[in-house]
Design brief:
mainly alpha; DNA polymerase, domain 1; 2 domains; 3-stranded antiparallel beta sheet; two-stranded antiparallel ribbon; elongated; disordered C terminus
Length: about 500
């Protein structure tokens, strides 16, 4: 019997070594394939550019070309959210198949055909965001793979498994987010997939102590910076400049809509019912977001997120009216009906639009390049959250109430749900205060980019005359004038 056990142990060790060798070979092959794929994509884009006629190349000599994709990038049809859910359900089914008997969902799937298994798993995952499902699947796959290499099963979830796995994470120098994702994935497996757990394994003292230690050494939070007033004013002037490329002007207008409506870039991935309520500089531009962050909470209650931007910003002229005029010239489809469309689609090298939403990174790069075309010091260190952060940052430095700032940021008001429900238009008064703040910025009374001691103009000139110009009389020293200088006109850049 001892010899038989020894032979079985040797065979298991050999199988584990073979699996590890195959995994490493696949990883090396995948890396080579990824590198070759990236090089191939660059060659394809270069060929696409060479095929364009010279007049088109001359016309596309703008910031638009820097973020454009080749036509072959979108040859494969875009997967719908339902199709992505089905693919994820198939992968979750493979994960559960390691031990069907260790989960309530697995015991239900055990005697079903593959199509029925995927369908049942998809129904169990219903209502969860695709991004959340991908994160949890990645964490659970890493846990199951590590347990398989150690010769043990990840399911049912046991305290000993978590103790040894967290020890492995500590030794490998994993970041704090990996520890948090591991615990969240275990809870997801228990309460969404019905995986059995022995007690509360994540509440063991050793696991909790390691988690506290990692959280205590959490790195400092790096928050997105807001746009400066001169950057916003430059974008507004850029949209109104007819000499600029219409695609760049449309992208600048989309960014301004996110800034003035206090929206994330993710909030405008799908919008509908664009409403024009213009009134000689006192109107608004409004749409409804169907892709906002709290859709999983608001949709069950029948609530929609309205994004409202003032017609007039912090610069001269009416940016919203100019942007509406650019809609038709740019050829970009606008969601004026009940069907949801991206506010800004990915551009293509042939001058058209792809029909797919632009990635956040490319959106930020596009806007940064537009700003840097006017002044190299603008558009630096921008992030996807900078749009939502800008107006809210300015408002928080004034005497606006916390409730007003919360409503402008589309945040809920604690213990005031009935007021919000029966008001019908809770944003009306906060929007008036926002417009007044913009007026103070245009007149030079309020300088949000200055330090705390210089937020309000010290001289009486701008406050008394009310002229909407950032004159030199506002500043006492040359240093202040250079720090807060007006936006450069796109025509003179």
């Amino acid at each position: 019997r001892a010899e038989a056990r020894e032979r079985r142990a040797k065979r298991a060790k050999a199988r584990g070594g073979a699996r590890e060798a195959r995994r490493r070979a696949e990883a090396r092959g995948g890396a080579r394939e990824a590198r070759s794929g990236a090089k191939r994509a660059k060659r394809v884009e270069a060929r696409e550019r060479r095929r364009l006629p010279r007049p088109i190349l001359k016309r596309l000599n703008s910031q638009f070309v820097q973020v454009a994709f080749s036509a072959r990038k979108f040859q494969k049809p875009q997967e719908t959210e339902e199709q992505q859910l089905q693919l994820l359900a198939a992968r979750y089914n493979v994960l559960l198949s390691h031990a069907y008997e260790c989960s309530s969902l697995g015991r239900l799937l055990k005697d079903k055909c593959e199509a029925d298994q995927v369908s049942l798993v998809a129904e169990s995952l219903g209502g969860k965001a695709i991004s959340t499902l991908k994160k949890r699947l990645s964490s659970l796959t890493r846990l199951a793979g590590w347990c398989s290499n150690q010769g043990m099963s990840a399911f049912p979830i046991d305290s000993q498994v978590l103790i040894e796995y967290t020890q492995h994470l500590l030794q490998s120098g994993a970041s704090h987010s990996v520890f948090g994702s591991c615990i969240e994935a275990c809870n997801f497996a228990r309460f969404i997939l019905g995986v059995d757990a022995i007690g509360d394994p994540h509440k063991r003292p050793v696991v909790q102590g390691r988690l506290r230690k990692v959280r205590f050494n959490h790195p400092a939070r790096v928050q997105a910076r807001p746009f400066q007033v001169r950057e916003v004013a430059y974008l507004e002037a850029f949209v109104q400049d007819g000499r600029r490329d219409v695609r760049d002007r449309y992208a600048a207008g989309a960014c301004l809509f996110c800034i003035h409506s206090r929206a994330r870039i993710g909030d405008v991935r799908a919008v509908k019912l664009m409403i024009l309520d213009f009134a000689d500089g006192e109107g608004f531009l409004e749409c409804i977001s169907t892709s906002h962050k709290c859709a999983s909470t608001g949709n069950p209650l029948g609530l929609e997120l309205s994004l409202v931007a003032p017609e007039r910003g912090v610069g001269q002229g009416l940016w919203a009216k100019a942007w509406v005029e650019v809609w038709r010239a740019s050829g970009h489809p606008v969601a004026t009906g009940s069907s949801s469309l991206p506010l800004l689609q990915s551009p293509m090298l042939n001058g058209s639009w792809s029909g797919r939403r632009i990635p956040t990174g490319r959106f930020v790069s596009w806007i940064s390049s537009i700003l840097k075309s006017g002044d190299a010091s603008m558009g630096v260190d921008l992030k996807g959250h900078s749009c939502k952060h800008t107006a809210l940052s300015w408002a928080s430095k004034t005497d606006m109430s916390k409730d007003t700032c919360a409503i402008l940021g589309h945040h809920s008001l604690k213990d005031r749900r009935s007021v919000v429900t029966y008001s019908r238009d809770i944003q009306a008064e906060p929007l008036r205060e926002l417009c007044q703040m913009y007026c103070d910025i245009r007149c030079g009374r309020y300088l949000p980019d200055m330090a705390r001691s210089g937020l309000y103009a010290k001289g009486p000139g701008a406050a008394e005359t009310g002229e909407e110009l950032l004159g030199d009389s506002v500043f006492e020293t040359e240093a202040e004038r250079n720090w807060y200088r007006p936006a450069v006109s796109p025509g003179s850049a």
